[in-house]
Amino acid sequence: MPALLAEAEERGGMDSDLRLRMARLIEGVLPQFDAILITCSTLAPVADDFPVQERVMRTDRMLAEALHRQAGPAVALCAAESTVAATRALFCQPGTQVNTELVAGAWDAFKAGNTTRYFDLIAAATERAYQQGAVAVALAQSSMTPVAQRFPAAQRPLTGPDLALQACYDLR
Description:
The chain is of the alpha/beta class. It has 7 helices and 6 strands; from the N terminus they run H-H-E-E-H-E-H-E-H-H-E-E-H.
């Protein structure tokens, strides 16, 4: 999948050709699994092409729904610019108080292998969001998840992997 993400980044997001190839890939492996979780926000919109009973799920949708259940202003943080449009479309629905913010420099640090800087930038952005009045923060990319452990339970940002594991458990 890293090659598909790189391709999407080069194209400025997922285009119809890439979406069709992703759908075919998923269709090919779907019979072998109880569910397929798409954890990449850039590529996740392809899950919307499958009926619910196919169990092709986007972890970013789970995260958006959890954030929408929060009362008050909230922020969804993005690391990669290629995810901003898809994240904004999913999280910033009419009637919600959710803003989407790109963490400047984070994706460059991640791609350079500097995870310490990557996590520090995300943690600082999370802290700023809380200081500016957010009652909840979502870490929109799965790669951001380790940052959540830096915060106390009452202020811990929401993460997709936790919600995805619960969704899989609920399928039993």
